């Protein structure tokens, strides 16, 4: 039996996903969460092989939650689900540690297949995402400095660029201020910048905020 937890802030969409997965005899939805705080409590007490995680949630976005879950529960396979087209987020999700990306507006049977595939530790790729990956290898785009950033470093850059203090960032990411300061220093070094003002200008010019 594949134990599944769903994290999505829309109750109607959660119910739709649950109803779709309930048709499969080898999949059991063990719990649901509407956000990260609730998800943390659920994962402490609920068996979970596959987490279905929405990208667009209030407070902490799905990519931030993905990184936190991968750090705290590396054994859980995360399948990102969204209404956004694959070309906007799929590759970034995979880079951040997701095992797959599924569109909630897609074929319900594809969602069932995706859960089964990632539960075995394999990556679930739609034909569209597979083509995007192939294109990225055969015709690599010119590399820009921020592509070398880890997901945590990217989060730090984006939050600094929106004017948040390191203490606020630390609280949001559930890290120590010292750790966030280390991420900031790495970002400055990798982007060859000197201060927060330059970070902000860089983020705006590259459409990162």
Description:
With 209 residues, this protein is α/β, with parallel strands linked by helices. It is 53% helix and 13% strand. The protein has helices spanning 11-22, 36-45, 62-72, 86-95, 108-119, 127-138, 151-161, 166-173, 177-191, 196-205; strands spanning 2-7, 27-33, 50-54, 77-82, 100-103. The chain has a 5-stranded parallel sheet with strand order 2-1-3-4-5, with helices on both faces. Helix 4 packs across helix 6 (127-138) and helix 7 crosses helix 10.
Helical fraction equals: 40-55%
State the distance separating the first and last CA atoms: 41 Å
Give the overall shape, derived from the CA principal axes: globular
Say how many strands there are: 5
- Secondary-structure element order, N to C: EHEHEHEHEHHHHHH
Q: Compute the gyration radius: what is it?
A: 18 Å
Could you report the average pLDDT, rounded to the nearest whole number?
88
Unreliable sequence segments: none
- Adjacency order of strands in the biggest sheet: 2-1-3-4-5
The structural class is: alpha/beta
What is the tally of helical segments?
A: 10
Q: Could you give a short account of the major beta sheet?
A: 5 strands, parallel
How big a fraction of the residues is strand?
Answer: 5-15%
